[in-house]
């Protein structure tokens, strides 16, 4: 459960009011920290992630004696002090080389954590790519490749997908300019090895280039701009059920109003149901088929036959009337 803080004076009450949940939250800011021992590779990666997240990132370069999985009180202090709900901690040791710990906080307390180790042989920093870089403050496109991320059972990869999405998604916006879609970050994960070791997560950053194609739709090309990082998953810490339920709550008034007789299927298509009154089938206009029509000559012959029959019947009636009159006379 989250610890409830009671204000002691008006000033602390105003400060707590500023930290209360909002209907529309501000863009999440990332705080980057380093431990007492941190390799040059991890420091370069922290600098690259700081460049990707600017201006929504804060980087501290001083050494901090922090052990996230043993004692997270220092991380919670930094989170409250700098108003950052996302933290990235870099460290290095013989047991856990080139370690990055991704941390999410809620209500000033640690929500969940993911520890990954950088593969040194395949890592390339942003400065090692000589291609043109994206502008600052762009909202990236995120893609996750691999069945591991889509597992119906919560595991390390579903946790990684959730944390990476929170870290790199940027601010919410109702409209997007196509010219601003210049950065794509892809996370790929294969299948686990036969010896039981977990599959690596590959992070690749691409710059999207649009060129003239002579048509309305431009020709799209991608170019790798760095950094290129491969992760192996280490320790994880999931969120408690009660705290996760509290964090996933939505304020009243933000839910989309459901429309009557309108549903959305699994594919995302909108389906509507229309109710009609009772139909009178006697007035239903059916389709006229040419094969069911009679010829004009046949209709004329039938009309002539009808006229002759009517004439004969009229003559018989007249004779009968004359005979009757003669008898009366």
Shape summary: elongated
Overall mean pLDDT score? 84
The count of β-strands is 12
- What is the CA-CA span between the terminal residues? 124 Å
- If you compute it from the alpha carbons, what radius of gyration comes out, rounded to the nearest whole angstrom? 39 Å
Regarding quaternary structure, how should these chains be classified? single chain
Number of contiguous helices = 6
pLDDT < 50 runs, ≥5 residues = 321-329
Strand content of the residues, in percent? 15-25%
Q: Helix amount, in percent?
A: 25-40%
Order of helices and strands: HEHEHEEEEHEEEEHEEH
Report the major sheet: 10 strands, mixed
Q: Report the structural category.
A: alpha+beta
How would you portray this structure in words?
This protein has helices spanning 10-18, 40-53, 73-82, 156-168, 241-247, 296-328, and strands at 30-35, 57-64, 86-91, 99-106, 109-118, 141-145, 183-189, 201-211, 219-224, 229-237, 262-264, 270-272. With 329 residues, the chain is α+β, with helices and mostly antiparallel strands. Strand 1, helix 2 (40-53) and strand 2 (57-64) form a beta-alpha-beta unit. The protein starts with 9 loop residues before the first helix and ends with a helix. The model is unreliable at 321-329 (pLDDT under 50).
